[in-house]
Write a structure and sequence with these properties.
Elements lengths: L25 H11 L6 E5 L5 H9 L4 E6 L2 H13 L5 E5 L14 E4 L6 H11 L5 E6 L2 H13 L3 E7 L2 E6 L2 E6 L3 E7 L7
Parallel strand pairs: 1-2, 1-4, 2-3, 4-5
Antiparallel strand pairs: 5-9, 6-9, 7-8
């Protein structure tokens, strides 16, 4: 069944096929897309794409650009392709493999989103820094303090202008006849712009 095309970020979670993989929830995804500052012709990497929710949101915006959706699991790649067809997008290329190796032959990006790094964030950031265009933006979603610390440290060492936002979302759930607020896991969003005297 073809999915309705949305014109603003924050597509409802239930609109995606997700299988057994974790996904970036709609409220966090909305802020993530905002931090990427996408243009219609942006070239985007989605590293550790999972089910492809961020790729889909980005693909709807960069209609004259392209999204490279990098995912190492077979299930994830199949879900991304399924979601891509559902939203009738033709500007998303699914790449099965592990970053940073699969990034090296790709065109230079304007924007990079890292949703999963498999413990190789430093290596991934090194390659992304080398390939990212001037004034390009890297956004990293982190659920652990260690990932947050590593990301901020590496980006600052390379001269990026770094911003950190902590997102804590609670959603109402029915509990009998009443509604209770249930918190989702906190997410740290790092957004960093390339540019400056130390960006070598």
């Amino acid at each position: 069944m073809k999915q309705k095309i949305f014109e603003v970020p924050g597509i409802p979670d239930e609109c995606f096929d997700r299988g057994n993989l974790p996904m970036t929830k709609e409220e966090v995804r909305c802020i993530t897309i905002s931090k990427l500052r996408l243009s219609q012709d942006s070239i985007v990497y989605d590293v550790g794409a999972g089910t492809g929710t961020v790729s889909i949101e980005a693909g709807l915006i960069v209609q004259k650009g392209k999204v490279y959706s990098i995912e190492k699991t077979e299930e994830g790649c199949e879900l991304i392709q399924k979601n891509t067809r559902k939203f009738r997008l033709h500007n998303i290329e699914v790449i099965k493999g592990e970053a940073p190796e699969v990034l090296k032959p790709l065109p230079a990006p304007h924007r990079v989103f890292i949703g999963g790094s498999g413990g190789r964030l430093k290596e991934i950031l090194k390659v992304c820094h080398q390939k990212l265009r001037k004034n390009g933006i890297i956004v990293i979603n982190c659920i652990t303090i260690e990932t947050l610390t590593t990301g901020v440290q590496v980006l600052k060492e390379k001269g990026y202008s770094v911003e950190i936002v902590n997102i804590i979302v609670s959603k109402g759930e029915k509990a009998g006849k009443v509604t209770m607020m249930k918190s989702l896991n906190p997410v740290f969003i790092i957004s960093a712009r390339k540019g400056g005297i130390n960006n070598d």
